[in-house]
Amino acid sequence: MVPGECPHPAEKAIGDAPRSRPAAEAAAGRSSTGAIKVLGVGLLLGVLYAALGAFTFALNNVAMRRGVVTGSVLQGMAITVPIGWFSFLVMALAFGELGQVVVFPAVALAWMAGQGIVHFVLGRYCNYKSNQLMGVNLAAPVVQLQVPFAMMLAVAMLDEKFTVLQVIGSVLMLGGSFVTQTRSSKRRNRTLAPLPPEMPIASRSSERALAAPGPTPRPAFRPRVLSGYLFALGAAMCYGSSPLMARQAFLSAPGTGTAAAGCLAYAAATLFFSLVLFKHGSWTDIKGISRENLPWFLASAVLVAISQAFVYASLAVAPLMVVTPILQLSLVFRLFLSQLINRDYEVMNAAVLIGAFTAVLGSILVSLDTDELMPLLGLPPSLADFLRYRLADH
Fold first, then answer.
1. What is the pLDDT of residue 231?
2. Which residue has the higher pLDDT, 180 or 141?
3. Which long-range contacts (CB under 8 A, 24 or more apart) does 378-386 make?
4. What is the CA radius of gyration of the chain?
5. Are 51 and 326 in contact (CB under 8 A)?
6. CA–CA distances in Å: residue 139 to residues 49, 132, 265
7. Lesser CB count within 10 Å: N end or C end of the chain?
8. Is residue 366 within 8 Å of 236, Cβ to Cβ?
9. Which of 386, 370, 331, 383 is nearest to 144 (CA)?
10. What is the mean pLDDT of the chain?
């Protein structure tokens, strides 16, 4: 071919084909690989953020449990609620969402204010009180019932679906919580059983040994199961209903930033909690916080704000189907952290472990989308159709 001459179509096809196809395939490969890498990094970050959120939330519960051993729930609330509002105020300022606070629609503002009062005041008080009465290990599986309770409200109020698989998950959660409470009640009864009437006559050597000064043994923790169970159920109801209130707020104000919404929710909670100060003796109780409990309450306040930030970050980069099951690991983290930090103030036995892991499995089955889960499990078609059968649907 003469230089400068326009090639024949056949020559162009023959000459360019070996060069264009590999180049196009290489370019397509690079673009698909880049997309896969971006999706993979986002998914890994979402998993990491969700795991950190579950861990810090569990650590928050354990720290608060240590504080209310000798302190009061009111003292813990007086520290965690205002610090939570300040933390979200800083986040709203950092994310540039502070201006959204003053232009929030009235309907959305009412929903977020109600959500803040229900979740950060009523729910948190019931959660802290149940931890004080029967410990984190026994209270956590009951508080975890917030997941099926939220599903029931979603079906009743938002006309969402409720499948057979989610019913099985709810039953597992109920069974896990009841197993821990039943076995702990039997253990408590054995602990409080009276001594047998026959007592051996002590010799003089044994009397001298008894009279000798020695270290005073620390009294064993005796959980108050009934009252603790009732407060844990109250926390589950509050924690289960508050997400629906937040969802209604975001539906009323689409495009609203989560930091601005959280700032409004915490502001309403702080104002509502300030009314407690008018109760006689409340301010005296709060001022009576000891130096021993103050670090635990401060740690709990900071950790709960960090955990909520991790949850928001995980939902921003990963699907809800990935984030929600990982957040349920908070219950497992609580067991091991409470055993590490609060060993003398918790009940730990095989029944607690079995009940906790059963509750985690149940919460995962409830929170996952059944239609998306069935293909991953590879179950027979008849069994998959049975599990995805909708007992309630819109």
1. 94
2. 141
3. 386/164
4. 28
5. yes
6. 25, 9, 25
7. C
8. no
9. 331
10. 75
In the numeric block, which tokens belong to residue 174?
């109920």
Q: At what angle do helices 124-143 and 330-341 cross, to 10 degrees?
A: 110
Distance CA 362, CA 177 (A): 11
- Using H for helix, E for strand and C for coil, what is the string for the chain? CCCCCCCCHHHHHHHHHHHHHHHHHHHHHHHHHHHHHHHHHHHHHHHHHHHHHHHHHHHHHHHHHHHCCCCCHHHHHHHHHHHHHHHHHHHHHHCCCHHHHHHCCHHHHHHHHHHHHHHHHHHHHHHHHHHHHHHHHHHHHHHCCHHHHHHHHHHHHHCCCEEHHHHHHHHHHHHHHHHHHHHHHHHHHHHCCCCCCCCCCCCHHHHHHHHCCCCCCCCCCCCCHHHHHHHHHHHHHHHHHHHHHHHHHHHHCCCCCHHHHHHHHHHHHHHHHHHHHHCCCHHHHHHCCCCCCHHHHHHHHHHHHHHHHHHHHHHHHCCHHHHHHHHCCHHHHHHHHHHHHCHHHCCCCHHHHHHHHHHHHHHHHHHCCHHHHHHHHCCCHHHHHHHCCEEECC
At position 242, the amino acid (one-letter code) is S
φ, ψ dihedrals at 392, nearest 5°: -145, 140
Residue 28: what pLDDT?
Answer: 47
Phi-psi region of 222 (alpha: psi -120 to 50; beta: other; left: phi over 0): beta
Q: Which residues, listed in sequence order, are joined to residue 392 by a DSSP beta bridge?
A: 162
Is residue 130 within 8 Å of 228, Cβ to Cβ? Answer: yes
Measured from the Cβ of residue 374, the count of other Cβ atoms closer than 10 Å reads: 18
pLDDT at 201: 42
The predicted model scores a pTM of 0.69
Q: How many angstroms separate the CA atoms of 77 and 273, rounded?
A: 8
Sequence-distant (≥ 6) Cβ neighbours of residue 298 within 8 angstroms: 79, 83
First to last CA, the chain: 71
Q: Which tokens is 10 given?
A: 């056949």
Q: Compute the average pLDDT of residues 324-344.
A: 77
- Give domain limits for the chain: 54-188+223-392
Closest by CA position to 78, among listed 294, 253, 254, 235: 294
